[in-house]
Design a protein that fits this description.
This protein has helices at about 15-25, 45-50, 80-85, 100-110, 130-140, 155-170, 240-245, 255-270, 275-290; strands at about 5-10, 30-40, 55-60, 75, 90, 95-100, 120-125, 145-150, 175-180, 195-200, 225-230, 250. By secondary structure, it is of the alpha/beta class.
Amino acid sequence: MPGFVNLIGYPLKHSLSPYFQQEALDYYHLDVCYQAWEVRAEELETAISRLREPQHLGANVTVPYKEAVMPLLDGVDDLAALVGAVNTIVKRDGDLWGYNTDVGGFVEALKARGNFDVGGKRAIVLGAGGSARAVSFALAREKISSLLIANRTPERARVLVKGLRHYAAQTGLEAEITVLLWQALASERTFADCQLVVNCTPVGMKYSSSEGQSPLAGNVIPEGILVYDLVYNPSPSPLLQLSRKAGANILGGLPMLVYQGAASFKLWMGREAPVGLMHDKARQALIEGNK
C-alpha cells in the first residue's frame, strides 16, 4: 500500500510544495504520494483525524492553520511550543507530533540567499500569525537588537510581543521588542533606521483576495534595506517589485519554502533531502505556473 504525506491549508492553488516534495520522494524511489488537502476551518479537525489512518505518514501545515492545529495533536516539540505554531506533522507510533521547520528555513534562506547577518540590526515584521511567529522568534534567536511587530489586529501583535519579551528575558537577549501600529507603515519615518522588513502576511499572494496588492507603498521603502517577502507566488511579489524600484535589496519566499520543506522531508523519511533538486523543481513549477 502506498503511503501519503499531505499539505493542509486554505487556499492551496498557489502552493508549490506538492511539486518539489514529490520530486524528493521520487528521487529516493519511495512509494509515497504528496497530496494537497484544501481544508476549510470547519473541516480541520476531521482532516487531522484522517492523518491517523495507517497510510498517512504526516503532513505540512500552512496558512491559516499553523496555530489552530496544535491542540489537535498528541504533542509538539520544544521549538514548536516556543513559537506557538506548527508547520510539520509527523506520525510516530500512531501519535501525531508537531514541529516547526519554518524557523530554520527562514534563517537559512536569510543567510544563504539574502547575505544578511541579523545580529545588532533593526527589523520590522508584518503580520502576527503562524509564519510571523516563526520569523520573529528566529530573529530573536539570532540576536536582533530591535524588532517591531505590525499587524492589522493589534491584539495579536501584542500577544506575540509578550511572548518574545518573555523569551528575551529568559535568554538574556537585550532587544527592544515593540508593537507597531499598522497605520505607521504609511510613514517613511517608520523605516528610517530599519535594515530588514519581513512580510509574513499573505498580501499579494496569487489566487488570494489580495492578489496584486502590496502591504507597503513604494515611497516608504528606503534604498539599501532588505525586503524579504514570504510570498513566493507570484515571483517577484507586488511588494518586491515596488522594493526593487525603490532601490532596496529583495528576497522572495521560495528559498525559505524549499529549506523548510527539506527539513520536513527529513523528519518524515529519515533521509537527507535533495535540496538542490527540490529548489530546481520549485522554480520550474513557479515559472510554468506563471506562463
